[in-house]
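Good morning N.,

You mentioned wanting to compare the apo and holo forms, so I went ahead and generated the holo version with 2-acetamido-2-deoxy-beta-D-glucopyranose. This is what I fed in:
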Amino acid sequence: MGGFAWSTSAFDSKSGQVILLVLLVMTASFYTGTFFGRNSSSTPSSSSELIGSPIFSNKVTLTHHKSPLKIPETGMNICPMEFNEHIPCHDPSYIKELMPNLDLSKREDLERHCPPLERRLFCLIPPPQDYKMPVRWPTSRDYVWRSNVNHTRLSEVKGGQNWVHEKDQLWWFPGGGTHFKHGASEYIQRLGNMTTDETGDLRSAGVYQVLDVGCGVASFSAYLLPLNVQTMSFAPKDGHENQIQFALERGIAAMISALSTKQLPYPSRSFEMVHCSRCRVDWHENDGILLKEINRLLRPNGYFVYSAPPAYRKDKDYPIIWDKLVNITSGMCWKLIARKIQTAIWMKEADQACLQHNAEQNLVNICDSVDDHKPSWKTPLRNCVALGTTGSEKLPPIPHRLSVYSESLNDIGITQEKFLADTLYWQDQVRHYWRLMNVDDTSVRNIMDMNALYGGFAVAFSTWPVWVMNVVPATMNNTLSAIYERGLIGAFHDWCEPFSSYPRTYDLLHASYLFSHYGNHQDGCSLEDIMLEMDRLIRPQGFVIIRDDESIISRIREIAPKFLWEVKSYVLENQQQQSEPLLICQKKFWAIA
Ligand SMILES: *[C@@H]1O[C@H](CO)[C@@H](O)[C@H](O)[C@H]1NC(C)=O
Ligand SMILES: *[C@@H]1O[C@H](CO)[C@@H](O)[C@H](O)[C@H]1NC(C)=O
Ligand SMILES: *[C@@H]1O[C@H](CO)[C@@H](O)[C@H](O)[C@H]1NC(C)=O
Ligand SMILES: *[C@@H]1O[C@H](CO)[C@@H](O)[C@H](O)[C@H]1NC(C)=O
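and this is what came out, ligand included:
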């Protein structure tokens, strides 16, 4: 099993090291085999074998970004093996250097810190030893390959809390968590009871979009899926546990992020519930500034669910912390609607009179009205609460929510007709994509739309067993609010910097007019830099679909083979029925032998 062979070798004279790059392919049985067949006690199996014997000339050598950028004749260099989990803006060795200047009491060390350009790598990230094609959804909810996330630490620390266990070559996720040893489903049912006076589930409480803070291996999100509830899960990269890597390997929406000194990269009023189950955030510190960020993210009448010792324990400092939480939340006019079995739930009441009153009593600050439509990207936290004006209209349940036309689109000149045309257009395009990629449905689970506009691409996938991370570049108009109002999830990002995700975490990247948006080629935004980051994010044999101006397309077509991408060119129509060039690239499954 997993017997790797290698096809060719090159001698790197500089390092005097023999480099072997191999091309791997999984046998068909891996895809088609129903993992458990009739015997649910057996475990997935894999095998790999060599196809062809292409000659790789790429060298394995640590290479940094140099201006002007130059791709070697031999193809992009490959970073050494120890970089196989490299996340440029969460690099422990770089953050260690910054430590003396970071506010550790606010955990600023957990936030993004991108190294200056000359410190950035300019080589392809290799997979770890014995990397296997990921287990496919829905089996991956419960099992992933151990060799793909080779960290025993989480199971050692959290095994007793039923998060994850070792099982032969696999990790097994029984669906537990620190706070729900008896399983996430039961816990979710209990939250439904608490928000509905025992009369219903979270859906009847109006909860369809959830933000999970400090999500662990994202079992909460996984078990909300049967209710059609969409969850954005995040956790910091905390050294040894790789929670987000586990979540994404399982096929669950997640990204690295931290509540510290800056706003989260999500728009205001986007979630009906924010969940913290022992999420290790000190909500009561700094005047409750982190709870004010949660207040920003919650929709009117949204819930904050807090399952942590201050909610139920009477020893140590817990009662004092609880009192502080009560002070902060009542200052913001949140209402404690339930407190039992180790969980407290507050509701953000859309009560303007209460906020005005508390502001007069100096119990809370009201934010100066700032442009709420601006993308929250590198925006410092604000120790204040906005007086809600818009966004209080109640959204329909999912899936009806998918067709909601947000007033915020009107504000940036997108008419309802244009919105509708966009939705229909992407339905059509996604069908074409699938035909052209010629893959079966199960081979794609984690999708990112790198320039999501109004989310039409993601809507076209709404009935598929996939999830889509909708990314809106921070330099564009904020259409992410409108995407959230459609019941979808996503984040702001600036593609001049690497994304906060582990390597090999997406099966499909979609880049529609992304490169031309960054066309001015300022440092860190060159086409090669963005391609390198795409290569890091995409799984072996994953796809990259690129639409753009002819000149950009031909440049990418030229250099894609140097990234070890197979590239195919097509022509489809744009929304004006003019033909438009398109590239479908597939990352080869290669490894350092
Ligand atoms: C996993 O990591 C351990 C050391 O941390 C190493 O000995 C082992 O070979 C690794 N396994 C795989 C499959 O890479
Ligand atoms: C939720 O409430 C229903 C109806 O009262 C009850 O049958 C069920 O056991 C409750 N679930 C949990 C987890 O408390
Ligand atoms: C809560 O607020 C009250 C009145 O504003 C104040 O007396 C009390 O000390 C506060 N408690 C904490 C724990 O901050
Ligand atoms: C952003 O919105 C403004 C109107 O608020 C519009 O004039 C402009 O063209 C939009 N920019 C983009 C890139 O769509």
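The chain has a mean pLDDT of 88.

Happy to go through it together on a call whenever suits you.

Best,
F.
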